[in-house]
């Protein structure tokens, strides 16, 4: 395998079904951090499948209203921007929060940049040596968060010498008050957003880049026309405008996030980080637990050594069950596979 082989991600349910000989329909997939109560997509008019995408279809207005800035570019999921943005700069020194979403580091390294993995505690010391700082906020999987003042201070230092602060806010929608979107556009600030996690629309492949217009034009020239399919644009427009659903989803996800923390603690699995959509548990027992749960048709995200970055600690990421049968199924499965001392009180982080 070469140094840029495909990286592991959550999902891959078909591979798990084949490996453990469990039918696809019998799985409880907790591996992705995607909202299991996704936005309810209505039937679409047949015409959306026969027409090319059009820019004046209302998507830009809906996105500008939702994110609080009109200066944005729709892309085929934030992954499209992650892969394209490194090609817009000359080779440089790129600090990337680690452990985190590994596609960022791979994309910058593939484009010829020198990637420096950083823990959150190392950023201040290393910032003067960086051309670009890449953050996932809140981080995936560790859940690290930074204040707006801290982020803008780092941005100011980088932008002052022509650098970038790139903030991936894929999991920000449950706490929009902490987003940097309202601070955009400004030179050297790039924000990535996605409808995959909070809205549960990962299959639609809809993302947005928030940045200065000049950078967006350069990015568009690299990506080419029709970055989003017409059906995806239609669904995104409706979802971004559905304020009632968004408010209810934030309340539900907040409650479910606390419930997941409490459940894991009750089985001796104290989360080391996370957000409303997932919890991250660091334990040397992670590989055994991952396999033991998979044998019962419950898929978690296992983090272990691999790729060109330092090995993350052995750990599991748990997404959210949905509905009482799934919650009970996870509870009963953990009771049968964990060996840690149970806790009677929530261990909120």
Report on the structure:
This protein has eleven helices and 13 strands. The strands form three sheets. It has a seven-stranded mixed sheet with strand order 2-8-7-6-5-3-4, sandwiched between helices. A four-stranded antiparallel sheet has the order 9-10-13-12, covered by helices on one side. The protein folds into two domains: 13-38 and 244-337, Alpha-Beta Complex (Aspartate Aminotransferase, domain 1); 46-242, Type I PLP-dependent aspartate aminotransferase-like (Major domain) (Aspartate Aminotransferase, domain 2), CATH 3.40.640. It has 349 residues and is α/β, with parallel strands linked by helices. Mean pLDDT is 93; it is low at 341-345.
